[in-house]
Amino acid sequence: MPSLSTPPVSIDGFTLEPIQVGDQVTVRLVGNADMSVTTKLGPYLDKLHAESLTLGVKRMTFDIRELYFLTSSSLKCFATMLAAVAKLDAAKRYRVRFLANSNLHWQRRSLEALRCVAQDVIEIETSVA
Questions:
Q1: Residue 83 sits in a domain of what CATH number?
Q2: CB neighbours of 86 closer than 8 A, spacing ≥ 6?
Q3: How far is Cα of residue 86 from the mean position of the Cα atoms in its chain?
Q4: Confidence class for position 2, pLDDT limits 50, 70, 90
Q5: Is 39 within a domain?
Q6: What is each CA distance from 113 to 1, 12, 65, 120, 122, in whole angstroms?
Q7: Beta 95-101 vs 59-70: how paired, if at all?
Q8: Are 95 and 123 in contact (CB under 8 A)?
Q9: Integer CA distances (angstroms), 24 to 30, 35, 74, in order
Q10: Does residue 129 register a pLDDT over 70?
Q11: Predicted confidence band at 127 (pLDDT cuts at 50, 70, 90)?
Q12: For residue 20, what pLDDT is reported?
């Protein structure tokens, strides 16, 4: 199987690192996704989504357990990506899982809002990081 070519990102106190294992991609987000991140996050998620379709990814996991802040504009980037996944034919659709930190209360509220965008696509797992 071809591998993911989307590179990691590091911007002032924020890192995003995608790792592919077979037909699964895990994207680890660490730090603070402030406004300087938002302008790059949307295009990055668009590219990651397109490449995942090409590679036949079955599940994409976003590990946000060490993501301490996310602007509403960045949250909208995830909503846009989830809406795109939800619109796909069932045969092309992949599952999107979020690993959240139960100590970061904003994550639960934000992820529940995302669930409204793509109920049939999203999974949320919460644990203490």
A1: 3.30.750.24
A2: 93, 117, 118, 120, 121
A3: 14
A4: confident
A5: yes
A6: 34, 27, 17, 14, 11
A7: parallel
A8: yes
A9: 20, 29, 23
A10: no
A11: confident
A12: 95
Structure tokens at 71: 């602007």
Output helix, strand, coil percentages for the chain, rounded to the nearest 5: 40, 35, 25
Kindly report the CA angle at 126 between 46 and 39, in degrees rounded to 5? 25
Q: How far is CA 108 from the centre of its chain?
A: 15
Kindly report, residue by residue over 9-32, the tens digit of the pLDDT: 999 899 999 999 999 999 999 999
Look up tokens 């590179």; give the residue.
7
Query: pLDDT digits over 33-46, tens only?
Result: 999 999 999 999 99
Q: pLDDT per residue over 52-103, tens digit each?
A: 999 999 999 999 999 999 999 999 999 999 999 999 999 999 999 999 999 9
The total number of structural domains that make up the chain: 1
What is the 3-class SS of 23-63, one letter each residue? CEEEEEEEEEECHHHHHHHHHHHHHHHHHHHHHCCCEEEEE
Domain with 14 in it: 9-127
1 located within any domain = no
